[in-house]
Design goal:
mainly beta, Immunoglobulin-like, 4 domains, seven-stranded antiparallel beta sheet, 7 helices, 7% helix
Length: 615
């Protein structure tokens, strides 16, 4: 039985700025017999957090039980399987840091440091063959910022909002400066995300240098005196604080962690369109589909359901809040009126096809005087190529990253989106099992031998967008609340009637025609009567046509009355009689349209034919 100690460990820079301690090592030590393990385990971490000097590290090395490296999300698992004689008792946790997150490179590499955090007595639970305990902890900013300061790592975390509405402002650049005795130091800059947050990392050398550096490095106070400038990404100044602002009590002598709120009087202009999913193929779902509850989910005007692979499209920019953008689609089941009948689920790799996202344009003449110096190529999002590449968008964790290539004269070229987002495979969302109608002859219902009549399925679709790798920035970018889909295929469909009988599989509809006289007389010929039998069936049955060609034709028929999803029965000659026809060969053709669309095309008419001789 293994003891597994799992959890997350993060460090606070301020109330709204928390970072996972990725790359650090969490060490579990046995508590020496001379110390009171119970008292240590109940003590608050603020009373036990302490630097472990090199000599003390060496002294406690023999007490090490196990350790684990913290991952990018701050998660860890300490496995005590190799710890001798460990029986679930309390232990002491130390954090060993070779560096700290976002530390800027300096002239000399930092010296590793080790800190005792606290002692823990886990509450073990049996899970299968193991005993597991959880521990989630965020080191308070008072201690974590002190650790960062020892590494020379200084950080500014902040947020930019609109002064009046308090709405966050994303996609702007914030520059930080230190008021210095001769010239102000530029400490760095950061770009705000969708929630208006930004982060600037710098080190002590950035504010201690002077115009005489490296001979003289002087900072009269312990930390920088901060003021800020906010700009658009193109450099338009939106906020310019005076350097004197850095001498105010709330800005003077800032420590290794400094948090600030900035506000703008006006919303900045944007040069990048907003992402929006608004169409299935050529159908705008807001106006061309009955997509609002309690609508049918069919197209407006021609009442078509969607089938096969459907192109989801709209406006697809490269950026969101000034940051590289990624997106995914989600779907859920709804009832026939569009009311939710399931939870949202991401569209997975098996539920979409390779999608043409746009063109890559590159200035690359093949030779001097090349009459076509600008070369173009297609760029796709392809679930078969998720790693991305020169002509493929990367797909990471189900999110499609919009290619950022933006230099037509460079080797990477310039990517120009065309608005396509995803070719969704509708049959992969909700199963539409095939229906076997073997034995069903023309003239009777497709359900006469027990086969069901297919019905439409109903789903909702929505697009989610976010800055690449930033879940906090995730937002909706368009929702189609209801769309009808139908992908049923029919097997064993009777074709050729009694003239040249056969069976057909994978048919989009049941379409069969025959004549009663051929069933009785075979090839003996038709003399005084012609009773044409037909069956046309589909959940979205459109126009059904029946025509006879031959000498003096074409000849029309009056069809049997329609019933929901079917045209079945006998057709009557319209304006002509079989006895008046010349003795010759004639062909009867039955055609049925199915009201389906991919959004860009509709299926061909489904046909059946028979021939006979008038004698």
């Amino acid at each position: 039985m293994a003891y597994l100690f799992k959890g997350t460990l993060k460090g606070a820079l301020c109330r709204e700025c928390i970072e996972p301690l990725a790359g650090a090592t969490l060490k579990a030590y046995r508590i020496g017999a001379e110390r009171d393990a119970t008292q240590l385990a109940v003590a608050h971490a603020k009373d036990t957090f302490a630097l472990v000097e090199a000599k003390a590290q060496a002294a406690k090395a023999a007490l090490l039980l196990a350790d684990a490296v913290i991952d990018e999300a701050g998660n860890f698992t300490i496995d005590f399987s190799s710890a001798p004689n460990y029986g679930g008792e309390a232990f002491e946790l130390d954090l060993y840091c070779g560096t700290v997150p976002h530390l800027k490179p300096g002239p000399t590499p930092p010296q590793p440091l080790q800190f005792t955090i606290t002692a823990v007595q886990p509450m073990w639970r049996e899970i299968g063959d193991d005993r597991v305990a959880a521990w989630d902890y965020t080191i308070p900013h008072r201690y974590w910022c002190s650790v960062r300061g020892r590494f020379g790592a200084w950080t500014i975390c902040g947020r930019v909002t609109h002064c009046e509405t308090k709405a966050p402002i994303g996609g702007v650049r914030v520059r930080a400066f230190d008021v210095d005795w001769l010239q102000d130091d530029a400490l760095g800059d950061g770009i705000t995300n969708g929630s208006g947050h930004f982060r600037i990392d710098y080190n002590a050398a950035d504010f201690k240098k002077t115009i005489f550096s490296p001979i003289i490095d002087v900072e009269w106070t312990g930390g920088p005196d901060l003021y800020f400038r906010v700009e658009t990404l193109s450099g338009t100044v939106l906020l310019a604080e005076l350097s004197a602002r850095g001498r105010a009590p709330d800005r003077e002598n800032a420590g290794p962690c400094f948090c600030v709120d900035l506000c703008l009087e006006k919303q900045p202009p944007t040069n990048e369109p907003l992402p929006v999913f608004d169409a299935l193929g050529g159908y705008l779902y807001a106006s061309d589909i009955h997509s609002a509850v309690p609508g049918s989910g069919l197209t407006v005007g021609d009442a078509r359901a969607f089938y096969a692979s459907v192109r989801l499209n709209g406006i697809l920019p490269k950026l969101l809040n000034g940051q590289p953008m990624e997106y995914r689609f989600e779907w859920r089941s709804v009832d026939a009126h569009g009311n939710p009948a399931g939870a949202w689920s991401p569209v997975g790799a098996g539920q979409f096809d390779s999608t043409y996202l746009g063109k890559l344009e590159r200035y690359a003449p093949a030779f001097v005087g090349d009459p076509n110096p600008i070369k173009t190529a297609y760029v796709h999002a392809d679930p078969v190529n998720p790693a991305g590449g020169p002509l493929h968008a990367a797909i990471v964790g189900g999110w499609i990253r919009v290619p950022q290539w933006s230099n037509v004269f460079g080797p990477e070229g310039f990517f120009n989106p065309n608005g396509n987002m995803l070719n969704i495979v509708t049959r992969a969302l909700l199963a539409s099992p095939g229906i076997d109608v073997t034995g069903v002859l023309a003239g009777v219902s497709s359900t006469s031998l027990g086969a069901p009549l297919a019905i439409n399925r109903h789903v909702a679709l929505r697009m989610r967008v976010r800055e690449v790798g930033n879940p906090a920035s995730e937002v909706d970018a368009g929702t189609c609340f209801h769309v009808a889909i139908e992908n049923t295929l029919y097997d064993g469909v009777a074709k050729g009637g009694s003239w040249a009988p056969s069976k057909a599989d994978d048919q989009l509809a049941v379409v069969s025609v025959d004549a009663q006289q051929l069933r009785v007389n075979g090839c003996a010929g038709v003399t005084t009567g012609l009773d044409v039998l037909l069956t046309a069936a589909h959940a979205n049955l459109g126009t059904v046509s029946l025509v006879m060609t031959g000498p003096g034709g074409p000849y029309a028929f009056t069809l049997p009355a329609a019933v929901p999803g079917e045209r079945i029965g006998a057709a009557v000659a319209s304006g002509w009689s079989i006895t008046a026809l010349a003795d010759c060969a004639y062909i009867i053709t039955l055609g049925a349209q199915v009201l389906l669309t991919t959004g860009d095309s509709i299926p061909d008419t489904v046909w059946d034919q028979i021939a006979f001789c008038k004698k």
